[in-house]
What does this fold into?
Amino acid sequence: MDSSQTTKMYPWKEIIPRMEEIRAEATDQFIAAWKNAQSRRTHDFTWHETMGYVIVKRDDAARRMVLSPRGPELLTEMGLVFDPGSVSTHPQDPGAADWDIAAAGPAAEAAETRWRPAHARFALRCEPPYLRAFSLEHLALQTTQCLRERRRILKSRLDPDEMLLSISQFPLLGTGTYIDHQGAPNGPLLRSQLLPDICLNSQPPFTLEIGGIVDRRGVVPYTGVPVFRDTNTVWPFIDEDLPADPYKGGILAQPCESNRDSACVMGNSTVATATPSAAAAPADLNANGLPSDALWDARLNSQPPPLSRPLLLEPPSNKNCVLLDSPLFGIGSGGVLRVTLCAADLDEARSLHDQLAPISAIMAALTAATPIVKGHLVNRDCYWDVQCSTVDDRSAQERGIVPLTTAKGTLLKSRYGSIDMYLGPDETRADPAFRRVYNDCHFTYDKESFWKMKEDHGIDSLLALHVSRLFVRDIHYASENMLGAGDAGSAMSGQEHFKRFLGCSRQNICLYPPNKCTSSGWEVEFMSLEAQLTDAENAAFITFIVLLSRVIISYRLNLYLPISLMDQNMARSQRVNAAGEQLFFFRRDVFGGRDGKSNGSGSISKRANLAPSRNIKSTSTGAERGKRGMNCSGVYTKAEYVELSVDEILNGSEAFGVTGILNIIFTYLSTMRLEYDVEQALRRQLLLVKRRASGKLCTLATWMRNFVRTHPEYQNDSVVSQSINYDMLRAMNDIEEGRVAAPELLG
It folds into this structure.
C-alpha cells in the first residue's frame, strides 16, 4: 500500500509555530467554499454510506480468535495506491462521469468500491465510487445487494482461516492474546501498555494523529469503562493491567518546548454561552428558563468568567472500571456505519444538520453493539463515549484540572462528541421553528476567525460560530504542501487545511462544505450509528436515515430541543438495553412550531419511572401511566418536550399525542406512487427498525450480552474468556453468512 509519491509529513510539535498560519489559511478556504456555493444550487439530493470491517483470524484447534493485521496487504492486492499527504477520498459526483449506479447494478458498483485504510491494521473502510442519486427503487432493491457484493469481494481475498465482521470493537482488544504476531507493548508509536505497535497502521497520517493526541494532552489518555456487575464479579473491581494514576504510572508524552500550555498554542478565542448565570435578571430568561435572544446576543461578545468548578477533578480511577490507554481504542479500530447526505444547498444542509441531531441518540440506542470491552462485560451497550474519551487531547488547563494561565479557555467536550450548537437558518431567512435559546450550552470558539467570517465576508453569526469552533483545536499533523506552498496555497487552490481541522473534530452530526475536487454540494454526515452484524441490518438503517432526511425536508419537521437535553439523551442512549428501558427527551409535536409559537407550554414533562413502555399494557390510559411517574396526563398534552421511549418516538403513542417518526415515513411512501414491489421492499426494511424499536427484536449488544451470560463456560464474573469469545464470533459469522438463524435479532 506504499505510495510511489512520498509526501513529507510533519508532527504536531513541529507545526506549533505555524499553527496560526494554518488556522488562517483554513479560514480563508472555508470562506472561498462558502462564496463559491452562493451562486449555484447543486444537482438533486445525493447520498453515500461509509462502511468499516474488522478482519479476524480463527484458530479452531485452540478455540481462539485473534485480529489479523493484514489490512494494508489486502488493500495493496486490490490496487490501492495511498498518498499520505492527500486529503481523504470522497465519492465522485455521478454527473462528473458517464456512470449510473442504479443501472450498473450491485456487482458493477462493488467492483469500483473505494477501499481505504483505517488507523488499525486489522480494520478497513469503504465507500461507493460515486454519490448515489436519490432513488427509492435503488434503496429498496439494491442497497442490501451492494453491501453484500462488496463484502463478498473482500472475503474472496481472505485466507481460509480469516473472517470479515462488521463489529464496532473486537471484544478482547487489549487483553491476553488478541492479534496475530502480537509482540510486546510499549512501542514508540502507540506508547501503550496494552497495545503493541503492530496494531497501528504504519502510514504517517495514522501514526502522527495518534502521536499528536498523546503529545497534545501531555499524557497517554486513560479511559475508564464501568464494568457490568454480575453475581460473581469481584467487587470492587480493580483493573490490574494499568496503574490507577496515569500521571504516575502511565507513559508520559515528551514535554513541549514552548512555555505555553502545550494544547493551547492558538489564536484569540472566547467562549459563547447561552447558559444563564446566577446573576441573570429574570427578564433575561424566557418561559423555559433559558436565556432570551437579546441575552444570547449580548453574551456572544462578552468573556464570561471561568467555570466555578473543574470539568475533571482527577484522572480516571481504575475502581470498578476497565482501563484503556490508547487513542487506537477509539479511532479506526472497528467497524463503522455512517450515512452522508449531500443537500441541494446550504439552507437544506443546515436544516438536516439541526433536525437529525436530536434523533442521533435514538439511533445510537437502537444500533447498540458494544457490550464487551477488553474482555469484560461492561455497564453500557454503546461505544460512543468511550470513543470520544480515548481521542480526547485537551490539556489539563482545557479540562479544568488546573487553573487557566496560558490556555485561552476551558473546553467542555473532547474533539469527538455531540454537537455544540444548532446552525439555524441564515439570518436573511426566517424559520420560526428555530429559537437561539436552544443553543443553551457553553462552547469555545476562535474569535479572530469568527469576526473575519462575519464582518469581513458576511457569513451569518451562527454559521461563523459553528466553523470557528473548529479552530480552538489544533490539527495533529500537516503535509509539506500545507506548510510550503506559501502564496500558491491560496484559498482558491484547495481545501486541505480546512479539511484537516474537520477530520480531527467529529460530532454526532457533521457539516462539510462543497467539495471542490468532486463537485459535490454541502454535506451532512450522520455519525452515531454503530455497525450492524449483517448487510440487511446495515441497509435497513441506511434506508431509514435517507428516508428521514427526505421527510424532514418535505414535511418541514421540527425536532428541535435544547442542546442540554440532547446531551442527556446521548448519555442515556449508551446504557444497558437503552432501546427498551430508557426514556428520551423528544419534541411532542414534530409538526408544530413553524408558526413561531412553541406549540406547548414550554414545560418539560418528566417521568420518575424509566420503565419501558412495552411493560405497560397497551390499554393503559395516560392517567394510569401517570401513576408510574408522570406529573399528570394533562401535562403531556401541553408540554413542548416529553420523555418518551424509543418505541413511542419511532412508532408513536396515542396516549401522548405522538405521531411516530416511522409512521410519518410510511405516510411519505404512500404518497410516492411506487411500484408494489418497491414499496413492499422498503416497508420490509423499515419493519426491522420498527420491530427493534418496539422490543420485538433485540439489539446486537443485547444478543451478545445474552450469549455470554448463557454460555456454559461463563462464571457469572463479567469475564469473557477466549473460548467464549471464539464461540460467540463463530456464531456471529454464521449468522452473517446465513448458516444460522437468529430470530431474536433479525426476525
Notes: The radius of gyration is 25 Å. The chain is about 35% helix and 10% strand.
